[in-house]
């Protein structure tokens, strides 16, 4: 018997783009004209989200998948989960598949949490006795016990996520497919989910894991696929794949400028234009001095007014460990000054003080959201830069300083008789 859990051969997915979907009513003449125009336009009216993807996954293997926003990662998982059909090629799946592609995938909003657990189990092909055996464990993990008989349409997004992940991870499908959903939960729940996924992997089940969190990818997977613009760029041991992805995905010039086709439609009305790192002299650079302040600026446009918008950045190590998060309306007075941002073009700037960061490589990610309302845009792999520690505290000793921070602190030495 073959030991393969998944086999993908020359898989491709094509989508039609254009304005036809926005037209509500058409006359017969309009319809015939549109068909003629589409025929004449041909390939100009389509886009390949995936093209010529081939790979195999052994039973019990945990495979990571990384790539920039819009690379085609989620499309690949939707095809493997039978949510959508491929345009070309095929994929063989051997075993029951449990999918967590987005918050509450497969949940019926009118049903209670209890009913949705049984519904999802039945969709996965589980017997009722199997679901009952796992039911208490699922509820305990999700921490929504007091609301288990409440329709899930009344759940918060966090409660939705907890229950959805608990069902997908506990109903023991042979293959678990997980997209980037852990970013929605709080830090404690993220740790809990990662621990559960580690347990699932150790039980010998096959896992496909998409994430922008390089620490999670390194922790959970042995091999990783790197997808760029719908094509499989690399398959390698995870440390090698992550290093390649980080080196290729980041700007090496101190700035990141988005092309039109790199901005997902769901980001509207927010449109990222550029992120730039500027040294103490105001020059765009990918290297700064630890002893001097530097600036990170986010340039963006709004096609319509946005209420409660906050634009922020993440500072990370190049392996994905978070150092800090900061938003342009963290200050209460600035938050009150910008309750609504009208349509227009903006730049949000953040100054990192001198004598703060240690030497090494760092990464910047950005986020644009309205708190607990909507996340417009999120990119943890925006650009990276180098910090030179020449002249920083302690440089008289030729030894590395541990940690990402190297602050110039005010020490006093008191002689006691």
From TrEMBL:
Stated name of the protein: ABC transporter ATP-binding protein
Pfam family, one: ABC_tran
Chain ranges of the ABC transporter domain: 33-254
GO MF, one annotated term: ATP hydrolysis activity
Keywords (A to Z) from UniProt: ATP-binding, Nucleotide-binding, Transport
Coiled coil: none
Family classification: Belongs to the ABC transporter superfamily.
GO cellular component: membrane
Taxonomic source organism: Anaerolinea thermolimosa
PANTHER family for this protein: TEICHOIC ACIDS EXPORT ATP-BINDING PROTEIN TAGH
Keyword Transport recorded: yes
Key word ATP-binding present: yes
InterPro entries: AAA+_ATPase (IPR003593), ABC_transporter-like_ATP-bd (IPR003439), ABC_transpr_TagH-like (IPR015860), Bact_Polysacc_Export_ATP-bd (IPR050683), P-loop_NTPase (IPR027417), Wzt_C (IPR029439)
């Amino acid at each position: 018997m073959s030991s393969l859990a998944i086999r993908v051969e020359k898989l491709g997915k094509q989508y039609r783009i254009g304005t036809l979907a926005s037209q509500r009513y058409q006359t017969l003449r309009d319809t015939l004209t549109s068909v003629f125009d589409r025929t004449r336009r041909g390939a100009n009216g389509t886009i390949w989200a995936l093209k010529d993807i081939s790979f195999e996954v052994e039973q019990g293997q945990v495979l990571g998948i990384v790539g920039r926003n819009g690379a085609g990662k989620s499309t690949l998982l939707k095809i493997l989960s039978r949510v959508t059909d491929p345009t070309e090629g095929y994929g063989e799946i051997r075993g029951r598949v449990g999918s967590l592609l987005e918050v509450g995938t497969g949940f019926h909003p009118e049903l209670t949490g209890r009913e949705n657990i049984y519904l999802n189990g039945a969709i996965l092909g589980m017997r009722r006795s199997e679901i009952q055996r796992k039911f208490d464990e699922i509820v305990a993990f999700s921490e929504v016990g007091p609301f288990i008989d409440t329709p899930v349409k009344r759940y918060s997004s966090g409660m939705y996520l907890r229950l959805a992940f608990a069902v997908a991870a506990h109903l023991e499908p042979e293959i678990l497919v997980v997209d980037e959903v852990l970013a929605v939960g709080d830090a404690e729940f993220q740790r809990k989910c990662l621990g559960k996924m580690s347990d699932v992997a150790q039980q010998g089940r096959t896992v496909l894991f998409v994430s922008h969190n390089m620490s999670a990818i390194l922790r959970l997977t042995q091999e990783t696929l790197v997808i760029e613009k719908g094509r499989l760029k690399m398959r390698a041991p995870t440390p090698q794949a992550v290093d390649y992805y980080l080196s290729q995905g980041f700007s090496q010039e101190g700035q990141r400028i988005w092309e039109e086709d790199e901005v997902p439609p769901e980001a509207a009305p927010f449109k990222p234009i550029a992120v730039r790192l500027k040294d103490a002299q105001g020059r765009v650079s990918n290297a700064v001095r630890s002893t001097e302040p530097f600036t990170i600026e986010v340039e963006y446009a709004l096609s319509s007014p946005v209420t409660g918008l906050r634009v922020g950045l993440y500072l990370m190590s190049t392996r994905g460990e978070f150092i800090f998060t900061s938003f342009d309306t963290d200050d209460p007075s600035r938050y009150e000054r910008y309750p609504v941002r009208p349509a227009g073009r903006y730049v949000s700037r953040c100054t990192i003080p001198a004598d703060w960061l240690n030497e090494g490589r760092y990464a910047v990610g950005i986020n644009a959201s309205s708190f607990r309302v909507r996340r417009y845009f999120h990119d943890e792999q925006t650009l990276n830069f180098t910090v030179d520690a020449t002249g920083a505290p302690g440089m008289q000793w030729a030894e590395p300083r541990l940690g990402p921070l190297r602050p110039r602190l005010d020490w006093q030495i008191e002689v006691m008789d």
